[in-house]
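Q: What residues go here?
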């Protein structure tokens, strides 16, 4: 293997693999990957492969859980008016739904408030708290937020209303003076697992409330009807799918498959989910979460909560239709803003910037994070997207590789009006007059910035003709996949390709039909127009991919999802003229790509060395076929036809290759 970005994981001790396979009755392939994940003894491997309620922790171990449960029960049985203060993303919506359903079971007088992203902002809002209390709230319970709500909590306290905070976000040195703070990482707490999401914390409260503090030893004692909500929120919030989260998500996905909520049924139908297609973690990530998050991105997220809570079929169908329409609107807005941001990102003005700071007037605030992620994918640079409205800029940033964007941008705190986030994602606002200053500060640090691409970790090299349904089924034992439990990745070295085609309106996707004696297997790569010249010009290709399935018109087929490809050159693979033809075609299709910044990537995609690629471009320059403008190689329209041999550089190169 010569691809620098593929990191082949060490093979486990064969004796360990044999013992796991024998004692757990699993395939050697599965045993190998289980061992690579660190589960090298039969007991830990069994617990990993068989998540069960015995692995759940006692909710009473959470900080202030005893106070929270007692106060909630007193409020419920005493007829106090309880208001749940939620959040507008899917973790916040599911947290609200779990807390609402748990209190409703107790017969509480309970309602909820979902803040508006644009009017209320994130977290406790003092003005909203005042209005809730004015309208009769006697107890406020936060879910998926609260630990930064100093002013709002103090306001409620001054008005004689208790606030119970349930949250999982980063803790500041000083916390609000709430009645109780239930948080898995509270400095005075002793909870054995610190990576619950907001809905995970809400579920632990529900578990404690409904079990009355008694130990749970059987699945029937859990509020299983809420586990689907837990799975959706935890997957959407990308928390670690290990320890307790793995149990909660596993049980929740089972609940979604066995007895899905009406709203989710209709949501998935609108998303094109086949009737025989199981709901797995990727279903939540790519079909459910984007749709329900779109509601909060575009306007009032309460619609999403109504859909989650609805048990009426007609109402659920109507709500799901409305959500689908909003999601389509979100997609259109994303494409418009992305197109404008992409033009800026690829322009000469930003070509030397290691961190992109892009702004536009009245770009929709709700989708800036999505656009930032897509620009990062395109440019391989950390990106901050800002929207200007009047004299204020608001924006979101996403990092690239292992670069800590939060720590870097925190250097300029005095420039912002608001700032927050973590290593891979930030949010900020600033005045228009501060933008130029921020750009200068970032550019001054340009030489100190090192961007390192995260390698793709590969489990094994796998011959493509060994892929069959039993291979796929053996890997499903490792589900649910997600953060800290990634789907296994395999190298497929020079598989026999029967056919290579492109897909999509812009021909931006590729599909390979592979020769396989056991079953039909396709390999697909989405949103990679740069792969098109590689797969259509040569069959000598290796790639890394995960193994999944595709459902189309009721038929299930195996499908490899390609993560990266590598052209494998051989002595008689590509002639000199083919090399020049492939490169010219690539340049024509990628006029917005800065070659100077991406020479190694382009060379890899074309199966050439960097030095060979430079020679080819030099020949095109000599012949007047292209021009170079600030690192961008541009085709010269209607250039006179000339033979390659008219270039002295070409003749030297040709003789050298011969």
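A:
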């Amino acid at each position: 293997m010569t691809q620098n970005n593929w990191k082949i994981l060490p093979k486990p001790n064969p004796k360990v693999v044999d013992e796991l396979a024998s004692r757990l009755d699993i395939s050697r392939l599965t045993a190998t990957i289980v061992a690579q994940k660190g589960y090298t003894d039969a007991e830990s491997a069994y617990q990993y492969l068989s998540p069960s309620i015995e692995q759940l922790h006692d909710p009473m171990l959470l900080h202030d859980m005893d106070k929270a449960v007692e106060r909630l029960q007193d409020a419920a049985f005493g007829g106090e008016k309880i208001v749940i203060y939620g959040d507008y993303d899917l973790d916040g919506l599911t947290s609200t739904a779990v807390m609402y359903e748990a209190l409703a079971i107790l017969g509480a007088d309970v309602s909820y408030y979902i803040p508006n992203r644009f009017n209320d902002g994130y977290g406790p809002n003092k003005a909203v708290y005042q209005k809730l209390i004015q309208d009769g709230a006697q107890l406020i319970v936060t879910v998926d937020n609260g630990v930064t709500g100093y002013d709002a909590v103090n306001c409620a306290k001054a008005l004689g209303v208790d606030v119970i905070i349930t949250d999982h976000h980063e803790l500041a040195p000083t916390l609000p003076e709430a009645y109780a703070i239930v948080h898995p990482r509270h400095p005075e707490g002793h909870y054995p697992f610190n990576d619950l999401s907001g809905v995970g914390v809400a579920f632990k409260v529900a578990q404690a409330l409904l079990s009355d503090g008694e130990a749970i030893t059987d699945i029937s004692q859990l509020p299983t009807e809420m586990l689907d909500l837990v799975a959706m929120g935890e997957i959407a919030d990308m928390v670690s799918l290990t320890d307790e989260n793995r149990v909660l998500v596993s049980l929740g996905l089972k609940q979604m498959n066995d007895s899905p909520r009406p709203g989710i049924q209709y949501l998935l139908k609108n998303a094109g989910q086949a009737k025989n297609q199981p709901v797995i973690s990727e279903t939540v990530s790519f079909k459910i979460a984007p749709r329900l998050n779109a509601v909060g991105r575009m306007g009032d997220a309460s619609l999403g909560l109504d859909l989650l809570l609805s048990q009426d079929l007609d109402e659920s169908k109507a709500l799901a239709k409305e959500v689908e329409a909003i999601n389509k609107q979100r997609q259109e807005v994303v494409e418009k803003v992305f197109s404008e941001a992409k033009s800026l990102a690829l322009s000469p003005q930003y070509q030397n910037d290691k961190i992109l700071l892009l702004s536009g007037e009245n770009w929709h605030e709700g989708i800036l994070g999505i656009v930032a992620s897509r620009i990062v994918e395109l440019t391989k640079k950390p990106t901050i997207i800002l929207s200007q409205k009047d004299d204020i800029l608001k924006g979101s940033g996403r990092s690239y590789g292992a670069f800590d964007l939060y720590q870097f941008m925190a250097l300029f705190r005095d420039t912002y009006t608001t700032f927050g986030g973590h290593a891979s994602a930030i949010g900020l606002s600033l005045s228009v007059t501060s933008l130029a200053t921020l750009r200068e500060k970032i550019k001054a640090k340009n030489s100190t910035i090192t961007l390192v691409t995260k390698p793709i970790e590969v489990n094994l090299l796998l011959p493509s003709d060994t892929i069959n349904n039993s291979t796929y089924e053996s890997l499903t034992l490792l589900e649910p996949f997600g953060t800290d439990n990634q789907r296994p990745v395999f190298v497929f070295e020079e598989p026999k390709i029967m056919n290579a085609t492109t897909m999509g309106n812009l021909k931006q996707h590729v599909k390979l039909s592979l020769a396989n004696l056991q079953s039909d297997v396709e390999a697909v790569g989405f949103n990679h127009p740069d792969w098109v010249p590689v797969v259509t010009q040569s069959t000598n290709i290796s790639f890394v991919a995960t193994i999944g399935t595709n459902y189309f018109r009721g038929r299930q087929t195996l499908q490899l999802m390609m993560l990266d490809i590598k052209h494998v050159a051989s002595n008689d693979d590509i002639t000199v003229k083919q090399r020049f033809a492939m490169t010219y075609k690539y340049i024509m299709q990628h006029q917005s790509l800065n070659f100077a910044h991406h020479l190694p990537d382009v060379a890899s995609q074309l199966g050439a060395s960097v030095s060979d690629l430079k020679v080819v471009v030099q020949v095109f320059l000599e012949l007047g076929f292209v021009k170079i403008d600030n690192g961008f190689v541009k085709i010269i329209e209607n250039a006179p036809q000339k033979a390659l041999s008219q270039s002295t550089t070409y003749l030297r190169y040709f003789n050298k290759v011969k």
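A: Context that may help when evaluating the design: The chain is about 40% helix and 20% strand. Residues 313-345 form the longest helix (33 residues).
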